[in-house]
Amino acid sequence: MLEPVGSVAVRTFEARRAGAPGEVRSLSVYDEELPDGQFYDPDAEYEPDPEYAATLAPDAARQRRERVGPTGRPLPYFPIPGPLNEHGPAQIVAMCNQKGGVGKTTSTINLGAALAEYGRRVLLVDFDPQGALSVGLGVNPMELDLTVYNLLMERGMAADEVLLKTAVPGMDLLPSNIDLSAAEVQLVSEVARESTLQRALKPLLPDYDYIIIDCQPSLGLLTVNALTAAHRVIVPLECEFFALRGVALLTETIEKVRERLNSELQLDGILATMYDSRTVHSREVLARVVEAFDDHVYHTVIGRTVRFPETTVAGEPITTYASNSVGAAAYRQLAREVLARCHAE
Ligand SMILES: Nc1ncnc2c1ncn2[C@@H]1O[C@H](COP(=O)(O)OP(=O)(O)O)[C@@H](O)[C@H]1O
Ligand SMILES: [Mg+2]
């Protein structure tokens, strides 16, 4: 039954699916692999032994309701989403922060893969001329004939000519490479230059449940295009000292795009990444982020682990590369939280 020893509790996936109280055990090592068939369940950590709970039921129920997550707020339960009978129209999410190296590309790949695991149809858009998203999914950007650039700049170019299937069932990619950097310059002279991506994505909306745009690290015209196309923005923030620097400029930009170009746009959430619960520093930064953004901060926090750089080399999401890792579990929880937020509206 319960062994509430370490920091991470797991239980068997099958037991969870059957609704039975699963086998729960603890891992003390942060990056430890979970055995096959088991997955990280942050809820299990707080679930009292049923026999024990029966002896103090009201109190246990209260504790369960009021359990506190890493952001210092009560942690809600994010249900496992049910299957969909039909797909679309897509919610478009821009993964955006003008700072580089904060986890935009990593979050795009792994949130996308986790949503696809839950049966959502997902399209990832590589909107950074560096092509890191494409590389992270095993695509060599130098070998591509057609990319997002062609979709943006060539009238009559159909999206399915550019689309690539990824190794994750239900997840497709609009790849990109250095060609896209020319678009930034060429778009300047176009009519309605800010809504070029929005127009290009429109025919794809019925085919997907989520379209996630991996933005480049700048607030230039490409990023404004992504924000104009999007319904919601996710801002990954690295749990480091200067995390909040520049975020005011980003929220101002989001505000301007909402006022002038896209009234539907909303800041869905701030995602804390590269969090290390063992350091006071990480915890302090996270506390400051919550102070500044309150309910906009996702309850889900992505821990720092070498598993993520490894997945880039492997060219696949962590959900398949290390399916039982804590990192994979974190992105699955994020997917459930994002879905819960969308349904709450
Ligand atoms: N949670 C994490 N823990 C450790 N390393 C991470 C984590 N998330 C991302 N990384 C690594 O940090 C680097 C930058 O991440 P990336 O997602 O490319 O950021 P961005 O797209 O914002 O520039 C990459 O090498 C990536 O593998
Ligand atoms: Mg990137």
From TrEMBL:
Stored CDD domains: ParAB_family
Highest taxon above the source species: Bacteria
SUPFAM superfamilies reported for this sequence: P-loop containing nucleoside triphosphate hydrolases
Residues covered by the AAA domain: 91-266
InterPro entries hit by this protein: AAA_dom, DNA_Partitioning_ATPase, P-loop_NTPase
Job of this protein: May play a role in septum formation.
Family: Belongs to the ParA family.
Stated name of the protein: ParA family protein
Organism: Streptantibioticus silvisoli
Phylogenetic placement of the source organism: Bacteria, Bacillati, Actinomycetota, Actinomycetes, Kitasatosporales
